[in-house]
Structures are given as structure tokens and as C-alpha cells.
């Protein structure tokens, strides 16, 4: 969230961010509540000061006879109690409204309502040109017996899958390969739960905006998370870290769950949009420094690109527009990988810088070398997400006979075999 002081001092910029990100939030009501709260606190402080002066005898209060002074004391106590309740109620209402205020996007972000306004940054690799009728990943899976994409739905419902044999091994190899790559770059691998309390979703910024996309376990007061970011962001909630603790580099492995509430029936077949998947997520907690955040953003992006190059997949990087980047994002780049059957690039990674927007929600701070306390900055990016990445991997590396050739980087996981 944004600090109230920042909002007061940058009202026009905040209004612009609300408009550019397409958020419905009444900034005037927030400012009015802020003014009401400050007024109530000032009156409460004045009444408390008077009460304290009376208690210390500075107003000459008699302690032996009843009279107007005792009546004034009764009035003070009642007024203080009423104002305390007003402050609590106003603060709660204000806090709820502040959760809807978006982060300001960086000035280089294209302005637009959705992904149609995203701009191309660069491309890497060339899409394959097959001298034979290329198959979809669904056809390749069926031909090789690599998954159950229909029978499992009788047990688990739609948008579920069951990988089999070599493809199930490939999924494990991909997760292991990405994890090893990140740990060699100084990241600490964490295996985290796929569920969390509602507070963690609010802290990461996934709530109140994305509530429709989350599976809920009401009896246990828990929800299933769509990314390890939800848990990683709250691991240090309420803490004051030390300057030499930073940066914290986490590679979070977890099962992930999403309703895909906004997909409107798209990609209902195959492995592109499923309700449960697995992901290794890069997550960085660093100092409150814009330049340092930019450097980490570039490094997270480079890690994801390195993994895609290991997989010998053609991809492109796009600069996400203000309306596509998400409420809490300062900057977001998507990496889209080429899918031959769709004849287009599709998003497989998303790299985001949030500055202190999440840290204010989790109250994660650090003490610098001069003893000053600041909110940290947070960033995140996908390292690998499966089974989605299997779609371009199978389709780009297929051969005429329906076999799939493994990228050189993965053959060691299959005892040197070049074929899946």
C-alpha cells in the first residue's frame, strides 16, 4: 500500500495511477477519512491532556467536595471513550480503503487498459519451421501415452491432469533444474506450503483484488495459494531486519492452485490452464533503493531467460502496460514462449518490482547502517512453472515421428538419453 503522507503529497500522481491501472477506488473519500481521523486524534489528544492536567491538580481540582469539577471529569471520560471508538472505526475504514490504492507505475510503462498495450522489448531464438504437419502437445501426449487428460477429470473435475511415465519424470527434472540453477546463483531454496491465512493474501496484494481466483477452506480458515510469493512475502512480517541481512534471495517451491476465474473458457483442453500446478518462484527482499531494485529486476529476468535458453525455447520479453501489470506493481515484464500450435508467444514467466508496496502491508523493515529504519523493497519472478512450460517444450522439440528430443541441458536427468 501507499503511505498516507505520500498520497497527500502526490494526489495528482495517485489519481493518474488509479486511472491508468483501471482501479475503482474513491480517493476523495480516502482523503476525507484521513482528515476526519487526524481531527479526531487531535481532539482526543486535547481531552487526554486536560484529563492529565486535572489528575495532576494543575487545574486546582478539589478532591473533597463534589461539584462542577466532578461533572467535568465525568464528561471528559465519556468524551474520551467516544472519541477512542471513533478513531478505531475510522482507522479500520481507512485501512480497508487503502488496500485498494495501486502502486504508481514507472514512467517507462506503456499506458493502456490490458495486455493489448504491452510492448515488445526483445526476442531470443527463432520459432521452428517444421517440414511436417506439427502436432499439438495434446496429440503428442496421446501418441506417447504420457498423460491422462480425460479420465482424471472424472475423479478431480475439469482442468486437472495426470502426467505419466517419462513426462512425469520430465516435470520433476524441470523443477530440479531450475532449483539447482537458482541455488548456484545464491538463492536459498525453500519448500513452502500451498496454503496460507487470508492475512498473507492481503499482505502480498492478491486480496482484495484476486479473491475470486482463490480456492478457500472455510473450516480451517485457510486458502490455497496461487504462488509461493504469498507465503514468502509474509515470512518476515512485522520484523525489523538488519542492513547486513539484505538482500534475502529465496527460491520458493510450492504446489499452486488457481480457479482461473477470469479465463472465460480459454485453453480448457490440455496443460496451459489448470487448477493445480507446481512452480519455483524467485523472491527478493532488498534495501529501499530504486537503483538496487532495478538491478535485481534485471537479474531475476536474466535467471528466467537462462532457464529458457537451457530448454532451447524461443521466447520474447514484453513491457507490461499499466492496465496489465497488476495493482501493486511498479514495473512488470512478462516472458512469453513460442507455442507452435497456437502460432503465438504465450506468457510463461512474470517479473515484477513492487518497491515498498508489499512491505508496508507486511510491515517488513530494516535498520540501515546509520540506525534509520526503512521499509524493504520486494521483487518476484517465475523460475519455472509446470505443466505450462511442458506445452512449448513438447511442441518446439517434436519430430516427424511424434518423438520429442530433449534439450541438451536435461539429458543428464535421463541418463544421457536424447529422447523423451
Shape: elongated
Kindly provide the name of the CATH class of the largest domain: Alpha Beta
Enumerate how many helices there are, as a single number: 12
Main beta-sheet strand count, sense and barrel state: 8 strands, mixed
What's the rounded overall pLDDT mean?
A: 94
CATH superfamily of the largest domain: Bira Bifunctional Protein, Domain 2
Instruction: Kindly give the count of domains.
Output: 2
- SSE order, as H and E? HHHHEHEHEHEEHEEHEEEHEEEHEEEH
Q: Taking Cα atoms only, what radius of gyration do you get, to the nearest Å? A: 27 Å
Termini Cα gap: 47 Å
CATH architecture of the largest domain: 2-Layer Sandwich
Summary tags:
420 residues; alpha+beta; Helix Hairpins; BirA Bifunctional Protein, domain 2; eight-stranded mixed sheet; elongated
Written overview of the protein:
The protein is α+β, with helices and mostly antiparallel strands and 420 residues long. The protein contains 12 helices and 16 strands. Strand 12 and strand 13 form a beta hairpin. Helix 3 runs antiparallel to helix 4. It is elongated, with a radius of gyration of 27 Å. It starts with a helix and ends in a 24-residue tail after the last helix. The mean pLDDT is 94.
